[in-house]
Automatic annotation (TrEMBL):
Principal place of residence: membrane
Any GO CC annotation of this UniProt entry: plasma membrane
Organism from which the protein derives: Thalassobacter stenotrophicus
Protein name: LIV-I protein H
Family: Belongs to the binding-protein-dependent transport system permease family. LivHM subfamily.
InterPro entries the record matches: ABC_transp_permease (IPR001851), BCAA_transport_permease (IPR052157)
Gene Ontology biological process terms in this record: amino acid transport
Molecular function (Gene Ontology), one example: transmembrane transporter activity
Localization terms from the record: Cell membrane
Domain of life: Bacteria
Membrane-protein topology: Multi-pass membrane protein
Keywords: Amino-acid transport, Cell membrane, Membrane, Transmembrane, Transmembrane helix, Transport
Transmembrane segments annotated in the record for this chain: 16-35, 42-61, 98-123, 192-216, 236-257, 269-298, 310-328
Length: 343
């Protein structure tokens, strides 16, 4: 039972990232009808927003410390972060420590701007083009973003730690009533799952209960009729593209302590996220979220040592095998709508 619970937790952790990225993909496809292969790159850019803010907060200058001397007795020069000058040492240390959560405030406007510029500057010219053209141009854009990140940040992963308060592990076994010491799980992974659940809930609430969201949902169902009512649906869809980019960016920001950011991390998640979208059903937000968590849990169980001893490498292909089975039995996916991607 302890092993099962541990794998469920691992699956929810990975499934949270799948669900967030897949939800952004579905928002873009559902509103604009664009198959956006650059969405994984937005996940990567979000992660490097956290890296950037962390570097900004740790910028330092040299000062002479009279309390410390070298072997000749001369005062040492030490690096002091500018954050100490601005906020004091105690507050500066706290801000530097909490760089990743604070990056949310930095990443949201940056990702919205990037999303709007992408949609207005490039993607709007491909609305009426075949999906193959959309895939090619957005995949090319993803490669460009990847190479830009590689140029400025290098090819090596950049460790970006979680705040010290969440850097340790907790005894989930004792918390759930099992024997102590049997289920030890990193706290930040639990934080990531809770964060993903909050973001997903906020997006659904925004679409369901706000006037803006209701108009967007109406436009997704019948764009021409909404336009005939005098509503500038294109402007609202552009904003939704920015929101979808922000969701992907937030997923990347909070994932940095779990996997050190690197320039190809977007591609690592992109293909799997598209599989999640297809399994959930093209254009279905609930389907994308459900499939994300479902495939994350299945992948976690396929990674058990007992399973890999019998079927080595199964964890690398299990998502694709499940996708094949689901699409053979339900061609539209778990919650797909009739007529979407069927022309």
């Amino acid at each position: 039972m302890e092993a099962i619970i541990l794998q469920i937790l691992n699956g929810l952790d990975k499934g949270s990232a799948y669900a967030l990225i897949a939800m952004g993909l579905t928002l873009i496809f559902g509103t604009l009808g664009v198959v956006n292969f650059a969405h994984g790159a937005l996940f990567m850019v979000g992660a490097f927003c956290a890296v950037t803010l962390s570097r900004i907060l740790t910028l330092s200058h040299e000062v002479v410390d009279p309390t410390r001397t070298d072997f000749l007795g001369n005062p040492l020069k030490v690096d002091v972060p500018y954050a100490y000058d601005w906020f004091g040492q105690a507050t500066g240390d706290a801000i530097i420590d909490w760089a990743v959560p604070l990056s949310i405030l930095f990443a949201v406007p940056v990702m919205i701007i990037i999303g709007v510029v992408m949609e207005r500057g490039l993607i709007k010219h491909f609305y009426k083009r075949p999906h193959a053209d959309q895939i090619l141009v957005t995949f090319g854009l993803a490669i460009v973003l990847q190479e830009v990140i590689k140029y400025f940040y290098g090819a090596n992963p950049i460790p970006t730690p979680a705040p010290q308060a969440f850097a340790s592990s907790m005894d989930m076994g004792a918390a759930l009533g099992f024997e102590a010491g049997q289920i030890i799980y990193p706290i930040w992974r639990l934080v990531y799952f809770v964060f993903a659940a909050i973001v997903i809930g906020c997006v659904f609430a925004f679409l369901q209960f706000t006037t803006f969201g209701m108009v967007v949902r109406a436009g997704m169902a019948d764009r021409e009729t909404v336009g005939l009512l005098g509503i500038n649906i294109d402007k609202r869809f552009t904003i939704m593209f920015g929101i979808a980019a922000a969701v992907a960016g937030l997923a990347g920001v909070m994932y940095t302590p779990i996997t050190s950011p690197n320039y190809h991390m977007g591609m690592d998640f992109l293909v799997l996220s598209f599989v999640v979208v297809v399994v959930g059903g093209m254009g279905s937000l609930p389907g994308a979220v459900l499939a994300g968590f479902l495939l994350g849990v299945i992948e976690a169980f396929a990674s058990l040592p007992q399973v890999l001893d019998v079927l080595p490498g199964l964890n690398q292909i299990i998502i694709f095998l499940v996708a094949i089975v689901i699409l053979l039995t339900r061609p539209r996916g778990l919650m797909g709508r009739k007529g979407v991607m069927e022309e």
